[in-house]
Structure formats: structure tokens, C-alpha cells
Write a structure and sequence with these properties.
Length: 292
């Protein structure tokens, strides 16, 4: 079982909410698992070959250009990532099994069973070699707060998935929303994504959409939701995953700084972040297991 998450300042009061209670979509379109791997002393060529074998019936996302095909998504897909030294940062929620991990295996599939089987096999291999695996799980859902106009602004021109050679860097941002957020009605919550104007019709607050707009053209973004509801003890409400080129790393930092600016993005008053984990996409398990 994953170790419990221990926030340094936890504003959650044990409330658990389901999407249906929040006027959010209940549809599940897929599943993702994030396997944060800490290596033991037994990493070797045999382990690398065994990890490669785990994924031999799945699609390796590293070389794929564009979204998944229906067949590939049904069979399961994986991406190996090696931690980028010195780039991961701790935020409000202390989670060393994530922040101190040596690598990440991101799995996605239309159904949960194929990637759970991969997770079980990977855990056995890594633990036998003296390491450990911390899993964050999420479900993929259609967007709940997005009008047609916002879709055109934020998503119609968003960068699609690209191969690892073109977008070698990735970041993972697990977050929780506070109880105060979930107690708001849905119109109140939705208002945080839009700019706010004063009595003279002058913009005084950017809101989430404009605070993050710089990342739309060059950063591929995916978001998964907690599978069993929001506000669960020891779980994250959302896990964000981002892929981008080396040249767009400063843009990603700019976007995160903009989101964390509570004056221009008041939504973040209701956010508790886990570690911001950075990794480099790699093709093979041998590259994945390299010590850096």
C-alpha cells in the first residue's frame, strides 16, 4: 500500500465528495498509474530485460507522435522517465517516496486491468532488487469546467503529444483542493478559471486560464482525477502530467509561478501541492535504470 501523504499544513477535514455531488462529470474515459520507482542495489542488465519484457505487449509512448490509437489505448501504453537531478521541488505536501524517487513509469489504458498487471509485475521486480514503488492512480474524465469558448481558447490549439526526442522533459504535479473549495457551489468554483474585472471593466485578476495561457502552444498537458472521489485521506485529488521540449522548460516554470500567484490566480488559495517532480523521457529500461 502507498505510504500516507503527510501535509505540512493540511486544511482538509476528512470531507469526501463524489463528482455527482459537485456537478462534475462522472464519465471515466481511461485510467493512468504513475509508478515512482526508487532503485535498490540490485539493478542490473537482468532487471532491465525483465522490465522491458513487462511492456512487450503494450505500446511504448516514447516514439509515438500524436494521440493514442483506439487499439493501443485498449492494450495499454507506457512511458519510462528517469528523474532529472536537482529539478524536483517539494511543495506543501511532503511525499519523499515521490520526491526522492529515481524514476517514473507512467501507464495508461482504457481499462484498469492491463496496467494493474504491469504494476504488480514491476513492483515484484523492483522490490526483489531492493527498491520500492510508490503508485499514484487516476482516472481520465472529460473536462467539467469548459465551455465551447474556453475549449477554443485553451484546448483547440494545445500541443498534442509528441515523441520523446522532441519533448524529452516531463513534470508531474499532484495536488489537493481544500475542504473550503469543495464546499463552494459549482458556479463559484468555475469563476476562478476566468478573469475578474472591476467596476470600470478593467481586468484586475487573470484567473487560471490566463495565468496558464503561456503553456498552451508548447506544453502537452494531461490531468487525472482521484478514482474514488475527492478529499480522501492519503490520496491526491488530481495529478497533472506535462511534457515539453528543453526550450519550453522556462515556460513551464513561468506557468507554475503564474498559477501559484494567489493575487492573479486566487484559486491557488485552495490548493495544496505535492512534490513537483521532473523527469526525462527514455526509451528503454536500461536507460531508465541508469544512475545519474
Amino acid at each position: 500500500m502507498p505510504r500516507p501523504i503527510k501535509p505540512s499544513s493540511d486544511l482538509r477535514q476528512g470531507i469526501t465528495m463524489q463528482p455527482s455531488e459537485l456537478n462534475m462529470t462522472t464519465t471515466v474515459t481511461g485510467h493512468q498509474l504513475f509508478l515512482f520507482v526508487t532503485f535498490g542495489d540490485g539493478t542490473n542488465d537482468r532487471l532491465a530485460a525483465a522490465i522491458d519484457k513487462l511492456g512487450e505487449q503494450m505500446e511504448n509512448v516514447h516514439d509515438v507522435d500524436g494521440p493514442a490509437s483506439a487499439d493501443a489505448f485498449a492494450g495499454g501504453r507506457f512511458q519510462l522517465l528517469r528523474a532529472e537531478p536537482g529539478l524536483t521541488t517539494d511543495q506543501q505536501i511532503n511525499h519523499p517516496a515521490v520526491s526522492e524517487s529515481h524514476g517514473l513509469i507512467r501507464l495508461e489504458c482504457a481499462s484498469l486491468e492491463p496496467i494493474k498487471e504491469y504494476e504488480s509485475g514491476c513492483r515484484r521486480l523492483i522490490e526483489t532488487a531492493g527498491g520500492s514503488v510508490e503508485t499514484l492512480a487516476g482516472v481520465m474524465r472529460p473536462r467539467s469546467y469548459t465551455s465551447h469558448a474556453m475549449t477554443e481558447f485553451a484546448y483547440a490549439h494545445a500541443m498534442p503529444p509528441t515523441p520523446g526526442e522532441r519533448s524529452p522533459l516531463a513534470a508531474v504535479t499532484p495536488i489537493n483542493k481544500t475542504e473550503a473549495w469543495w464546499q463552494m457551489d459549482f458556479l463559484h468554483r468555475e469563476s476562478f478559471f476566468l478573469p475578474r474585472y472591476n467596476e470600470n471593466e478593467e481586468m484586475v485578476v487573470k484567473g487560471h486560464a490566463l495565468a496558464s495561457a503561456a503553456g498552451v502552444p508548447g506544453i502537452n498537458r494531461r490531468l487525472v482525477h482521484s478514482p474514488n472521489g475527492y478529499g480522501l485521506e492519503g490520496k491526491y485529488d488530481f495529478v497533472g502530467y506535462f511534457e515539453f521540449a528543453e526550450k519550453d522548460a522556462p515556460v513551464f516554470r513561468e506557468v507554475m509561478a503564474g498559477l501559484r500567484d494567489k493575487v492573479q490566480n486566487p484559486e491557488w488559495k485552495y490548493v495544496l501541492e505535492g512534490p513537483e517532480w521532473w523527469g526525462r523521457r527514455v526509451r528503454t529500461a536500461a536507460e531508465f535504470l541508469e544512475r545519474t
